[in-house]
Amino acid sequence: MIWGLLPVYFLMLPMISAFEFVAVRVVFSLVFCVLLLFITKQMRQFLAMFRDGKTVGQLALASALIAANWILYAVAVLTGHVLEASLGYFINPIVAILLGVVVLKEKLRTLQWVAVGFAAIAVVVLTVGLGRVPWISLGLAFSFGFYGLVKNKVGQSGTALGTLTMETLLLAPFSALFIGWLAAQQNSALAGAENFGVVLLLAASGIITAVPLLLFGGAARRLPLSTLGSLQFLAPLIQFILGLLAFGEQMPPERWIGFGLVWVAVLFVLADMLRAPKAGSLPEPKKLI
């Protein structure tokens, strides 16, 4: 629900570029995560992560991928392409399936192949209809797909909160420098904020970023894969409705056809999840954060 309603948050923001918003988001996310580390008494466990160079390197890659995903999403919403953003997150599970085949050498089941086929046809239809490749949708789908792949390789090297803190910490120096440069140019939304409410609204980006990621990390350890996968389609569905009703974006016939093909692919993915053999037993769930 939080991810689905995120475009509404953008409507309340002052004039801000996608790059500055992501920089602000990183800084305030780090502040929020560090506070949570102290509250939950995980600081010592977090600091121990620095001893594992391989994990830090993987999280550096993950931080670059999630930053690219955030920038693309901000560009999409701030330039009136909420529907393309929702399409990207509908496609994401299919991209995850493809990455499993190409990178992890997994074998696809029949319904998964059918879903990939429908998704590929949808991209072709949308490319022809729009007169261009839907790069925002594909960029969001692949950046988050690779992000999930890297986080999968990190595995149990740290808690959900610890790994998220590390990712934002690695991005924070670049974000702070960028915000400082904008302030020096007198072109920063933060510097131009004339009331405390606007500053609080921008600061809330840290909470809006961290909370759903932490909830997702906790849910992934507690729910069956079929349930988790089904719930993931709720966010792009809400974004799609917002794009039509709140942002007033147009849906020409070719876009309806493209979305329709993607939704058919989604149905095949869900059907495959329901038919897939269930795990015999689940490990003891870790703390949410």
TrEMBL record:
Its membrane topology: Multi-pass membrane protein
> What are the entry keywords?
Cell membrane, Membrane, Transmembrane, Transmembrane helix, Transport
Q: Name one GO cellular component term.
A: plasma membrane
Q: TM spans, by residue?
A: 6-39, 59-80, 86-104, 111-128, 134-150, 162-184, 196-216, 223-244, 256-274
Q: Which InterPro entries match?
A: EamA_dom, EmrE-like, RarD
Main localization of the protein described in the UniProt heading: membrane
Q: Which Pfam families does UniProt cross-reference here?
A: EamA (PF00892)
Q: Which domain of life is it from?
A: Bacteria
Q: Where is the EamA domain?
A: 2-127, 138-270
Where in or outside the cell it occurs: the entry states:
Cell membrane
Report if keyword Membrane is assigned. Answer: yes
Q: What family does the entry list?
A: Belongs to the EamA transporter family.
Among PANTHER family, the record links this protein to: ACYL-MALONYL CONDENSING ENZYME-RELATED, SOLUTE CARRIER FAMILY 35 MEMBER G2-RELATED
Protein name, UniProt field: Protein RarD
UniProt organism field: Glutamicibacter uratoxydans (Arthrobacter uratoxydans)
